[in-house]
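Newbie here. two chains, one complex. Structure please?
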Amino acid sequence: MEFAQIFDCVDSVAIIRRPMDVSGLPGVWINSNPQTNGITRMVMTEVDGGLTVQVYAIGPDGLIDWGVAKVQVYSSTPLSRAGAGFSCRYDFGFAESFLQGMIMKGLLVLAELYTFKDQSNRADYFVREYFALEHQRF
Amino acid sequence: MNILRWSTSGSNPRLQTNVTQNLEFKQIRDLDQALIDSDVPSMGADRLIGRWTNTDARTRGLQEITIKQTGVQFSVSAAGAGTNGPIEWLAQSVRPLANLEEEAGQRGISLAADFDFGFMKAETYLRVNKGVLVIVLFNSFRDQSGRSDYVTREFFYRAE
């Protein structure tokens, strides 16, 4: 088994070949910052054992729906089958957005990497925001 | 740049400015003045450049990271913990990104660095927060080993 760090080097006998458990990810994730000028909420949905996300961001006249994107799910170790993070991409034509999220103590930490493809000379940029899962228990 | 008016016609809304630019956007942040005026490679890159050592002396991940800058180009290399000595990591692509985070009151630069080992790829981002280099790795296996794709985060202090 090839590896690039000892993290990757696991006993092949210990590998359990079953689908990733994504049950910790579906739901409505709300930005912890009500003053954000970026992504306000993400709706994650389980579809056929996989996940999709629909992102909403703040615009001058209300929310902008980015549409639905397919999500790649990550665990926290090569042997775990519990979803602990995700990534997805949006291509808007004038720009691309690459989102990388990881769950830490119930909080979704979202890294957002933006690349402009137009001729606006805007700088590609990075921002990190925090999201909480709406649970309506309290 | 002075904002004249918003236009919401077409598939993406646009901001019309007095310098005859029509800027498309998908969130208000896309129009941040800091993006328009930015010279990203010079935005505090010195905070990232150098050799960094993992704060965890027993890490099973990356032991060291070295970040270099030549003009507007950046390179990222690392030493992965191996069973018979370090394993060389060299990023195939490194992109500087203006960091719009206002945490800790600092704006600067972050890097997106991708590593490709054939059997595995690692899509990472690196940033410095209060003097600590943080790397988050999204590792995806392409072989048939059955290992799960996984995400890890590690912390580094400046070695030199």
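Moderator note: Chain A has a mean pLDDT of 94. Chain A touches chain B through 60 residues (CB under 8 Å). Thread marked as resolved.
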